[in-house]
Write a structure and sequence with these properties.
Length: 278
């Protein structure tokens, strides 16, 4: 699955935002993820990018932090065996959404995660008290999930998120921060549309026809090159066709099998001759 989430806004006229793109298995195992955060302050901008990808049994992580003009890079890799149950920014968002859809929080929701210093730590989830929030002029029941992220370098950070019945995120806030992200309007409910199947006529599609012709020429060139490298192929086929037209057998497949059998490396006659020579 591919997950993509982003938010962009401004705090005191300073642009800020976060975006995450993750590729996950149906077991929520992270295959690859890119996480980007930024705050553009006048004369002191902060930009953080973290990319992780599974490769050869390892999770390879590369982090780039830019503060003003100073750039700091960190790289780390961990065996997947020690990251069993890893929850990242991307997978945690999908996990919380699934919990909100079921409106039930399992017990002992603790997972492996990574802190800002790329150290292996624990992150836990718990259900928040039921409450109502106003969205687009409507007062709606929402389901809350709290995520607590431990840290090796400082105090843990706590995030509280509330979701609608359909899984849409209504509000997200970091405890202790004056900034709250809120949903201002209810998402429009998509109407079911009956899409009719349109037959594919690739000959009339310029792009597909162009790809077909390019591939056709590529194969022709490859086949011609192979035949030039192996001139015995033409002689073999020519001899076979000449004998076939002379004999005109009723069973062409049987004739072809008898004709080409002596060329087989595991032909019984060859094995007998080899045994006699030994």
């Amino acid at each position: 699955m591919m997950l993509h989430a982003q938010s962009h806004g401004a705090i005191d006229d300073c642009p800020c935002g976060t975006a995450v793109t993750a590729y996950l298995t149906t077991d929520l195992e992270v295959l690859e993820e890119d996480h980007h955060e930024y705050v553009k302050l006048e004369g002191h901008s902060v930009d953080k990018r973290c990319h992780m990808v599974q490769r050869d049994g390892l999770m390879v992580i590369h982090k780039v932090t830019t503060v003003g003009e100073e750039v700091t890079e960190e790289s780390m890799s961990y065996p997947m065996s020690v990251l069993r149950g890893l929850v990242t920014e991307g997978s945690s968002l999908l996990l919380m959404r699934l919990i909100a859809l079921r409106r039930k929080m399992p017990e002992n929701m603790t997972f492996v995660s990574l802190d800002p210093g790329l150290h292996i730590i624990n992150t836990s989830f718990r259900e928040l008290d039921q409450r109502q929030l106003e969205v687009g002029g409507e007062l709606l029941d929402v389901f809350g999930v709290e995520r607590i992220i431990q840290s090796m370098e400082g105090s843990p950070s706590t995030w509280q998120c509330y979701f609608l019945d359909d899984g849409h995120l209504v509000t997200r806030v970091q405890v202790g921060s004056p900034v709250t992200m809120r949903l201002l309007e209810l998402p429009s409910k998509a109407e079911k549309v009956d899409f009719k199947k349109i037959p594919l006529v690739w000959e009339e599609d310029m792009q597909m026809r162009s790809k077909f012709l390019d591939r056709k020429e590529e194969l022709k060139a490859d086949h011609s090159s192979y035949l030039r490298q192996h001139p015995e192929i033409r002689a073999l086929i020519s001899d076979f066709l000449q004998l076939l037209l002379l004999r005109k057998p009723d069973d062409v497949f049987l004739f072809a099998r008898e004709y080409f059998t002596p060329f087989a490396s595991n032909h019984p006659a060859d094995a007998d001759q080899e045994a006699q020579s030994l």
